[in-house]
Amino acid sequence: MKLIYALFTGLVFGVGISISGMINPAKVFNFFDIAGKWDPSLAFVMGGAVIVTFIGYRLVWHRDAPIFGGGFQLPSNRTIDARLVCGSALFGIGWGIAGFCPGAAIPALGTGRWEVVLFLAAVTVGFFLRRLLAPAQPHAKVASS
């Protein structure tokens, strides 16, 4: 049942990303092109996501545990440090250059564009490089009820 729920969640996300047009890198590029063909649709998609997330968290935190898991997994590190800032900056720069974030690139695989495959290959290499070059970090702690 857990896998079916994960599949359904991914399907809803992928359909939403596709319907919103966020699998098209031109949407992202046009959002950043304030002086040219500015397209505010990305801001509306992000705003909608923030609203849904806000409501979802309010509903979820009233539960003792997740429906399909042992406990809520929360980050143990809450400090804003150089690693977080640099990682966020790298993510944003990559997003601005490629026009994709990993979440939108996975549904975009269905378009058959080679750029999407190249982007996801680069992201995968980046994940493995980070694991090779950086020391292991503590895992998220499970919240107790």
If you had to describe this structure to a student in words, what would you say it looks like?
The chain is mainly α. It has one domain (2-142). It is 63% helix and 3% strand. It is built from six helices and two strands; from the N terminus they run αααβαααβ. It has helices spanning 2-20, 25-32, 41-60, 82-98, 102-108, 114-133; strands spanning 73-74, 141-142. The protein has a two-stranded antiparallel sheet with strand order 1-2. Helix 2 (25-32) packs across helix 4 (82-98) and helix 5 packs antiparallel against helix 6 (114-133). The protein is globular. 8% of the residues are buried.
Describe this structure in a few short sentences.
The chain is mainly alpha-helical. It has helices spanning about 1-20, 25-30, 40-60, 80-100, 100-110, 115-135, and strands at about 75, 140.
Secondary-structure blueprint of this entry?
Layout: H1 2-20, H2 25-32, H3 41-60, E1 73-74, H4 82-98, H5 102-108, H6 114-133, E2 141-142
Antiparallel strand pairs: 1-2
Protein name: YeeE/YedE family protein
Transmembrane segments: 41-61, 82-106, 112-129
Organism: Harenicola maris
**Distance separating the two termini:** 24 Å
Gyration radius over CA: 18 Å
**What fraction, in percent, of the residue positions are helical?**
55-70%
Query: What pattern of helices and strands is seen along the backbone?
Result: HHHEHHHE
Can you tell me the overall shape?
Answer: globular
Largest sheet composition: 2 strands, antiparallel
Task: Identify the strand order in the major beta sheet.
Answer: 1-2
Beta-strand share of residues: under 5%
Mean pLDDT: 87
Stretches where pLDDT falls below 50 for ≥5 residues?
A: none
| Number of beta-strand segments | 2
Question: Which structural class do you get from the secondary structure elements?
Answer: mainly alpha
Give the domain tally.
1
Number of helices: 6
